[in-house]
Task: inverse folding
């Protein structure tokens, strides 16, 4: 009898979850039916997103891009404040410094995980000491909800020049029960507003996570690539107004194998999306396109790029030296990813000059092929940023213990890196 009651309870829970999922899908479809392509992608903010400069750029930083010689340097953005760190995101400040964020704690999902912040100083070319800025308690007090754990942060700059920092929180269950929070800074990251919880679904508002770089529209609204993991894995695009409210939601993919989308707006109407794939072999990065400013998308298909089901990131290259632009008429794209079907034992850069139709591997920034593989010695979750002086900044999780920061110019990007990657 007890077993029968347990089975009935399980069936009721499964039925309830299924009903919620169906209602959520119906709501998503209905919102898309009433969408009109009145908004367009902003091309002026698809590359450089720094604030208006408040200080002069240092001569040293200027010389890095004016000098056509290949340039690359590497250092750690984190300094072992926590045993593990993960999922870095970064933005350029008005004084040409870089502010990065990540989560750190005993391990992923632990209750002591908080969101950390650190600043790379342009004049000294060095990182400061990281500090914890967003905690479970801070999030609980701001959203009036119990917070079990924190996860991925994503940063962007809004049309009013404020910095918007999104981050994941979970109240119940695992990552499939996630929600997205937004906190804002109006003083270049010196202080942060009380967080608000984004309303992404009218049904429990669960299972929305972030990883990809936000995109911007000509009307000042922000497109936030998100993904779901509850009873499936699929991507979506949220549109937020200037108050940070979700005013639109667009489905990117369907099923149980796609997540963590990134977007490349090619023009005011055309865009491509790429996603992490978690399905059957062969393991490849997924890609799809839109021709009406992201309102509708083609079915996601496998590209030729291998990937072990790990995070990816990309950006449009402001090619100051014209080293890539002279090879094609399109704005060059840059992608950072794990170039392997099974392991996260490399961090690779690839470029495209034909709007993502084909990709050329440029460099293996990291490569650590071990037999057997060591899951604690891996490279993952990259983030790319190009600053006003043209330098490109790559941040990623290094062996789960550090956030690594690599700076290079387009001259280096077009040259051949010695075997073995960056030391």
Result:
């Amino acid at each position: 009898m007890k077993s029968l009651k347990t089975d009935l309870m399980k069936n009721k829970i499964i039925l309830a979850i299924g009903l919620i999922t169906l209602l959520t899908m119906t709501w998503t479809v209905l919102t898309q039916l009433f969408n009109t392509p009145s908004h367009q992608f902003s091309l002026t903010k698809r590359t450089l997103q720094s604030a208006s400069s408040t200080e002069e750029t240092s001569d040293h930083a200027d010389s890095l891009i004016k000098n056509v010689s290949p340039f690359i340097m590497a250092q750690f953005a984190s300094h072992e404040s926590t045993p593990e760190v993960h999922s870095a995101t970064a933005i350029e400040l008005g004084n040409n410094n870089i502010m990065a964020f990540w989560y750190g704690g005993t391990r992923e999902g632990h209750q002591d995980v908080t969101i950390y912040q650190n600043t790379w100083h342009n004049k000294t070319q060095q990182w400061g000491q990281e500090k914890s800025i967003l905690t479970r308690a801070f999030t609980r007090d701001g959203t009036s909800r119990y917070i079990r754990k924190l996860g991925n942060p994503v940063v962007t700059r809004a049309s009013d020049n404020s910095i918007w920092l999104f981050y994941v929180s979970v109240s119940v269950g695992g990552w499939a029960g996630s929600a997205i929070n937004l906190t804002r800074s109006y003083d270049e990251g010196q202080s942060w507003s009380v967080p608000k919880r984004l309303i992404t679904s009218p049904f429990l508002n669960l299972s929305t996570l972030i990883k990809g770089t936000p995109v911007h529209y000509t009307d000042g609204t922000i497109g936030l690539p998100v993904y779901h993991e509850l009873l499936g894995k699929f991507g979506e695009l949220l549109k937020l107004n200037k108050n940070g409210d979700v005013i639109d939601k667009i489905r990117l993919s369907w099923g149980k194998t796609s997540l963590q989308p990134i977007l490349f707006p090619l023009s005011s109407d055309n865009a491509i999306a790429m996603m992490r794939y978690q399905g059957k072999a062969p393991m490849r990065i997924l890609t799809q396109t839109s021709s009406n400013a992201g309102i509708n998308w083609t079915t996601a298909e496998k590209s030729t790029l291998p990937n072990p089901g790990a995070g990816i990131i990309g950006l449009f290259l402001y090619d100051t030296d014209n080293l890539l632009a002279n090879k094609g008429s399109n704005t060059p794209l840059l992608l950072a990813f794990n170039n392997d079907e099974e392991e996260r034992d490399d961090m690779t850069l690839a470029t495209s000059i034909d709007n993502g139709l084909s990709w050329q591997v440029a460099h293996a920034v990291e490569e650590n092929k071990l037999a057997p593989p060591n899951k604690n010695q891996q490279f993952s979750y990259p983030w790319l940023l190009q600053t006003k002086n043209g330098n490109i900044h790559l941040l990623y999780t290094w062996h789960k213990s550090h956030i690594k920061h690599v700076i290079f110019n387009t001259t280096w990007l077009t040259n051949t890196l010695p075997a073995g990657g960056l030391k």
